[in-house]
UniProtKB/TrEMBL annotation, chain A:
Key component of the cytosolic iron-sulfur protein assembly (CIA) complex, a multiprotein complex that mediates the incorporation of iron-sulfur cluster into apoproteins specifically involved in DNA metabolism and genomic integrity. In the CIA complex, MMS19 acts as an adapter between early-acting CIA components and a subset of cellular target iron-sulfur proteins. This is MMS19 nucleotide excision repair protein. Residues 46-313 form the MMS19 N-terminal domain. Pfam families: MMS19_C, MMS19_N. GO terms for biological process: DNA repair; iron-sulfur cluster assembly; protein maturation. Keywords: DNA damage, DNA repair, Nucleus, Repeat. It is found in: Nucleus.
TrEMBL record, chain B:
It comes from Ziziphus jujuba. GO terms for biological process: chromosome segregation; protein maturation. Pfam families: FeS_assembly_P. Belongs to the MIP18 family. This is Protein AE7 isoform X1.
């Protein structure tokens, strides 16, 4: 094969160290491609390179060797025959002795040794030769970091691929490896070194083999690194983490039991060091190594381990700073850290390994005995000194962990400790006498020692958890014949009685919270023990339930106890569910569920009604059947009290009815929604409402209770909203039948809903204008169903209903307007021909609302200024809004209605919303002639010149808030509104330019004022990112909006929202330009807001906004400095702390920009 | 010249767990939260020691208990304890405390700063100087002192 001429060049270029690395890489690539494409063989190449490989120039020789090695590294998949392989590996093996050209030799050996078997591999004898040469020639620790890394990789590769050949080197190899890894410091190399040791140990499994004599050395070497302490900065060596290293070291330590005599003492020694890291690592390593070293070897250390563990646990328990709360409680409220967790893991491991030895150590432990002996000297938790509490906690946790380990330990610890505890509690005595009935006289004040109760509860809960775990994993099942079972059965009755009587009213007032917590917990554990292991008779179980119930009913002033008892009941209720026993289930139903339900209708018990409802709901959550029962009961109560109000006129039931309805709205319906399969309950509730409506309207009693009606509407809405379409159809049919039977509401076949309108401005009195109470009730409940209906739900006779709602919202029923908005939002675009004739498409509905002129204006007054005919003129909705009829109230109603309809359109992205916006804008511009629209002008021709009343303009401005804000009442996801994404952005970017230009054009100050208000309301609900992107244009108007909104206390929430938008602009990079331009006005506004009296958050945020203002260019803000500092110094005396704190910070920022005088 | 510390190796204490205040009611806008000793302590705790980079809280120069506040009388008294009896920085610390309180409390307040009885050799002198408004005002004219005070009062971000 001819040698290509360029080969020599490439070789020369690679070998020449004066060339750049890229050039060398290119020439390497060129050589590789030559060999790959079979233009030259490797043998030819080697022959060609003879001079480079044999020269006495170290540098060139090294480069030459490296070229061959790199080439082989890149040709892993190229098949090579045995002869070539043999000669190549022979060459590299020899070269290992050449320390000046070592890199190439290492890379070459690695490349050849790593080859896959189908492409030709190094033979076993050659591999052995490599290993021998390696051990003979290489002094790993004298090499640089990269070469060391290669050395370790080569060793690892040899051990993994040729274990037998390498193992035959025996002690030589072990010695070599020990020498190689001795003193290594680089993290990556260390990681490899740990792996090598782990692999090395696998090579010599024989405990009396060559490894035995080196174990001491190896573990001494490894021990130097323990615990791994990483000094590398975070950025560097990111590929090797402390955890990786630590784990590798742990695996190396655990690789053979032969290390045990050296490592375990080391770990124990480090465990006693004050460094937390050393403690955690020692515990971790011990836990991991113990099973690998085996029980026999570990037994020697059991005593030492136990002592160290005990010390570690005791010293790591810190006093918790938190006050006692039932939620966060673990043991006695001492905080546990990683050391404790690891210590308990280790305790569990060693206990499993050497059960007998460890448990006797624990049982004979002096500290534990002392704790037991001291127990009787303290009664309540609060009597125990802090140190005693800590010791008690340690013992409790140790007992819990050890008892829970397995059933053998459980038996042993129960036998040893439980009788002692019972002795202390003086419970065993009364049991031996055979008396197991409720002993009311068991006086506990001085016998129920907290320590004993606590440990007893820990033991019991460990036992119960052990049982539950074994049932879940279905491993070794626990029989009732186990010693601990028998013991518990013997004591259980007396114990339950003791707990019950301590929890009885009277004892609780004097007890500490912690005492109570453990008594309740103990009783709860006993009540929820699996039936087959601890049979509790029905009467005892009922006694437990009665005890808890009496707490619920009587001890409601003791909040913690009450909550704990409730939680215990819920727990017991849930447990009955899993291990269903009909007897217990029925007694729970009778004693708890029915009892508490029976209390609802009567307000005799002293338990406050809200707590009663909370308890009822919580108990219901324990089980679906309980909840169903409870819902039925509550439903009865709701309708009974509603009827009481509406039929009998009994106003005393109003509060109760409202609370019950709120319980349904806030708790029960969301719960049902969460379970997802109880739709019939919702349907029943909604239908029930309509069944009762008939009877309410039949009565003569007139009750005006807005709150009650609102609560009823909300509950109905939520119930309907969670129903499926089928159920909704049923409900709507039912409701419609009630509605249509009420003739006063729906005028059949009428296109003109007559509302007497008086153009002259005679004020309609509110009372006569409204519906009667009965009609109102039906109308509003119907509206709430329409609001909650799904888009596909069929609404009968849409046109008629549209007319009804139009007529009613003009009378001031906002819910009607909301219902109209919802209908418009959800109606289908076009009705199919097959549908019933009463179906109405969206376009038609819009036409009905806007274009028909259903309002007749009766000219029934004296001389009207209008030239209306005696038949009256017809006025459309838009005309009403812009004030054709000089009736302020009607106008406001029309505008509010229009806003809700507009919202429905806006959400679904219908273009008609533009018309709505234009009408609203006209209302805002009404008193100026320049901005007036065509419509206005045409109206002016017909009617007299009239200015809109301020209240009308204000409602037009507020309509923008309705359009932009999210409502809880309707048109949201809960009530299935069709919501187009980004509708707020879209509306904001269409309407803002118009508002801005109108502000510029407007020459009436009041009109401008209202435009500011409208703009502010649009801005505060728009997504911040859009506002910021328009910051330059928006900021001036936003600032005007701030001053407009700060005038009325009603607007304080809106003011706050707007201020948050400003702070968003302030902190955003894109807003900086706008801020610079308006700096003076911003500072003026903010300093005004510092003294805003109605909302603390406004003051706080205003001050926070001033801080970044101080970073603006010095010349710009210097003139404002005094003004700001004066305003802030007033804020230093603000009644609220948060404001004062911000003021100090802000003052620091502003004071530091120039002068240093203490005041200004 | 090597700077000589008055106390080259002070004992640094762990910051004490803060007393937790109940969350303020957001609903009641008219609720008044009077200035109390915890709030004043919050103003003072992060002042740096003039010699070391530790806060006065860490060195236990001031503590929550050593601050008396009577909001209705507009009066506050801070009693501080220098780390060593002969600490030459006591006056600077006292000035820092006074300046910080002047900047953080409403102007209606009368501030009284004093060295804990028996904790400093020049107790009377320090007490006299730091509560003499003429002398305090004069110290403000000294750029060196002012620089030092500003460094101690600079906000820390830990």
């Amino acid at each position: 094969m001819a040698v290509p001429s360029e080969l020599a060049q490439h070789i020369e270029s690679y070998v020449d160290t004066s060339r750049s690395p890229t050039q060398q890489a290119t020439s390497l690539d060129a050589v590789i491609s030559l060999v790959k494409n079979h233009l030259i063989t490797i043998e030819t190449l080697v022959r060609e390179m003879e001079i480079y490989l044999t020269t006495t120039d170290n540098v060139i020789r090294a480069r030459g060797t490296l070229l061959i090695a790199e080439l082989l590294m890149n040709l892993v998949s190229k098949p090579l025959d045995n002869v070539t392989m043999h000669s190549l590996i022979g060459f590299f093996t020899d070269r290992l002795a050449d320390w000046r050209a070592l890199r190439g030799a290492l890379v070459g050996c690695l490349a050849l040794l790593r080859r896959k078997s189908n492409n030709g591999t190094v033979t076993a004898s050659d591999a052995k030769a490599v290993a021998e040469s390696y051990l003979r020639n290489i002094q790993v620790q004298s090499l640089g970091q990269h070469d060391r890394k290669l050395c370790y990789e080569l060793l690892e590769c040899l051990i993994e691929r040729y274990p037998n050949e390498v193992a035959s080197l025996g002690e030589n190899l072990i010695y070599g490896i020990c020498e190689a890894v001795d003193g290594e410091k680089d993290p990556y190399c260390l990681l490899r070194a740990f792996h090598i040791i782990e692999a090395l140990v696998q090579l010599f499994p024989d405990p009396s083999g060559p490894l035995a004599s080196y174990c001491g050395d190896i573990s001494e070497n490894l021990g130097l690194y323990f615990p791994i302490h990483f000094t590398h900065p975070n950025g560097e060596e990111a590929d090797v983490k402390r955890d990786d290293l630590s784990r590798a070291l742990m695996l190396a330590f655990a690789s053979t039991p032969l290390f045990e005599p050296f490592t375990v003492p080391l770990f124990l020694e480090k465990l006693s060091s004050p460094l937390p890291l050393a403690k955690v690592d020692s515990l971790k390593y011990l836990s991991y190594c113990a099973p690998n070293y085996g029980a026999d070897r570990m037994a020697k250390h059991a005593g030492a381990i136990w002592i160290s563990l005990k010390n570690a646990i005791s010293t790591s328990m810190l006093e918790s700073a938190k006050s006692f709360t039932s939620q966060s409680l673990n043991g006695l409220g001492f905080e546990e850290n990683e050391i404790t967790t690891e210590a308990f893991m280790l305790l569990k491991t060693v206990l499993m390994q050497n059960s007998d030895l460890l448990s006797s150590l624990i049982m004979d432990d002096e500290d534990i005995s002392t704790t037991f002996n001291n127990m009787t000297s303290y009664g309540s938790y609060s009597d125990i000194p802090l140190q005693g509490k800590q010791r008690l906690h340690v013992v409790g946790r140790i007992l819990y962990i050890t008892t829970k380990t397995n059933i053998a330990c459980c038996n042993r610890f129960f036998e040893s400790f439980f009788p002692r505890l019972m002795d202390i509690l003086e419970i065993s005595k009364r049991n031996s006498s055979g008396g197991c009935f409720l002993d009311e006289n068991y006086s506990l004040a001085n016998k129920f020692h907290f320590g004993a109760v606590y440990l007893c509860v820990e033991l019991l809960s460990a036992y119960r958890d052990l049982i539950m775990e074994s049932r879940v994993t279905a491993t070794d099942s626990i029989h009732a014949k186990e010693a601990c079972c028998c013991m518990l059965q013997r004591f259980s009755l007396s114990l339950i009685n003791a707990f019950c009587s301590t929890l009885r009213t009277g004892c609780n007032k004097v007890s500490d919270d912690v005492d109570i917590y453990f008594r309740v917990k103990g009783l709860q554990i006993l009540a929820t023990f699996p039936e087959d292991l601890l049979p509790i008779s029905g009467s005892i179980f009922e006694n437990i339930l009665r005890t808890f119930m009496s707490i619920i009913l009587v001890d409601f002033n003791h909040i913690l106890l009450w909550k704990l008892a409730l939680r215990a009941l819920v727990h017991i209720g849930t447990f009955i569910d899993t291990c269903s026993r009909s007897e217990k289930a029925s007694s729970f139903m009778a004693i708890v569920v029915e009892k508490i339900l029976s209390l609802v209708p009567f307000d005799e018990s002293t338990l406050p009604f809200s707590l009663k409802l909370e308890a009822i709901f919580e108990i219901g959550t324990s089980r679906q059947s309980h909840m169903l029962k409870i819902i039925r009961g509550l439903e009865e109560s709701v309708f009974a009290s509603l009827s009481d109000v509406y039929v009998h006129g009994n106003l005393r039931s109003v509060d109760m009815a409202i609370q019950l309805l709120e319980c349904f709205s806030n708790k029960i319906f969301p719960w049902i929604h969460g379970t997802g399969d109880l739709e019939e309950v919702l349907l029943r509730f909604a239908i029930n409402v309509w069944n009762h409506v008939k009877s309410w309207t039949a009565s003569d009693v007139q009750v005006q209770e807005k709150g009650l009606l609102d609560a009823t509407m909300m509950a109905t809405k939520l119930a309907v909203g969670s129903c499926s379409e089928e159920s909704q159809n049923i409900i709507i049919q039912k409701a419609y039948s009630v509605l249509s039977s009420n003739t006063s509401l729906i005028v059949k076949e009428s296109t003109t809903t007559s509302i007497p309108v008086h153009p002259e401005g005679l004020q309609l009195t509110r009372q006569t204008d409204k519906f009667s109470h009965k009609d109102e009730c039906i109308l509003l409940l119907f509206a709430s169903i329409i609001i909650a209906a799904r888009p596909k739900t069929h609404i009968p006779n849409v046109r008629e209903i549209l007319h009804l709602f139009i007529a009613s919202f003009l009378k001031g029923y906002v819910s009607s307007a909301q219902a109209l908005g919802s209908m418009i939002n959800k109606l289908g675009l076009k009705s199919n021909g097959t549908e019933i004739s009463s179906d109405c498409a969206l376009e038609e509905a819009i036409y009905i609302i806007f274009n028909t002129k259903p309002w007749n204006s009766y000219n029934n007054s004296v001389s009207g200024q209008c030239e209306a005919t005696s038949n009256g003129i017809e006025i459309g909705l838009s005309d009403l809004c812009v004030g054709y009829v000089n009736n302020r109230l009607l106008q406001v109603n029309a505008i509010v209605g229009l806003a809700w309809i507009g919202k429905g359109l806006l959400l679904r992205g219908h273009e008609k919303v533009k018309d709505v916006t234009m009408i609203l804008l006209q209302c805002l511009l009404s008193d100026g002639s320049t901005g007036a629209s065509k419509l206005k002008q045409s109206l002016l021709e017909k009617t007299c010149e009239q200015d809109l009343h301020p209240s009308v303009m204000k409602s037009a401005a507020d309509a923008f808030h309705i359009l932009m804000s999210d409502s809880d009442d309707c048109l949201n996801q809960k009530f299935h509104a069709i919501i187009r994404p980004l509708y707020k952005q879209r509306f904001f970017s269409t309407v803002m330019p118009i508002l801005l230009s109108l502000v510029v054009k407007s020459d009436s100050s009041f009109s401008r004022y209202m435009l500011y208000r409208a703009s502010a309301l649009v801005i505060l609900d728009a997504p911040l990112i859009v506002v910021v992107s328009e910051a330059k244009k928006i900021t001036p108007i936003l600032l005007e909006g701030l001053s407009v909104l700060s005038e009325d206390i009603v607007d304080k929430e809106k003011l706050y929202a707007l201020l948050l938008v400003l702070s968003g602009i302030l902190t955003d990079k894109n807003g900086q330009e706008a801020i610079m331009e308006n700096a003076h006005i911003i500072i003026n506004r903010l300093t005004d807001l510092i003294s805003y009296p109605h909302k603390m958050l406004v003051r706080e945020t205003a001050i926070q906004c001033l801080v970044p203002m101080s970073k603006l260019p010095y010349t710009m803000i210097y003139p404002m400095r005094t003004q700001v500092l004066q305003a802030i110094s007033k804020a230093l005396d603000d009644p609220r702390r948060a404001v004062r704190q911000e003021a100090v910070r802000c003052r620091q920022a502003w004071a530091s920009i120039a002068s240093r005088s203490p005041h200004f | 010249m090597v700077y000589e510390f008055f106390n080259a190796n002070p004992v640094v204490y762990k910051k004490k767990e803060r007393q937790v205040r109940g969350a303020p009611s957001d609903t009641d806008e008219s609720a008044v939260e009077p200035i109390d000793h915890l709030e004043v302590f919050d103003h003072l705790r992060n002042i740096k020691d003039p010699e070391h980079h530790y806060s006065l809280e860490e060195l236990r120069v001031i503590s929550e208990d050593a601050i008396e506040v009577e909001d209705h009388c507009s009066f506050v008294r801070v009693t501080f304890t220098p780390t060593v009896n002969s600490c030459g920085m006591a006056l600077v610390i006292a000035l820092c405390l006074r300046m910080k309180l002047m900047r953080s409390l409403p102007s209606r307040y009368k501030v009284d700063i004093r060295v804990a009885p028996g904790s400093h050799s020049d107790e009377a002198i320090v007490n006299k100087q730091v509560n003499d408004k003429e002398r305090v005002a004069a110290s403000q004219e000294q750029p060196l002192i002012l620089d030092l005070i500003d460094r101690c009062l600079a906000p820390s971000y830990d």
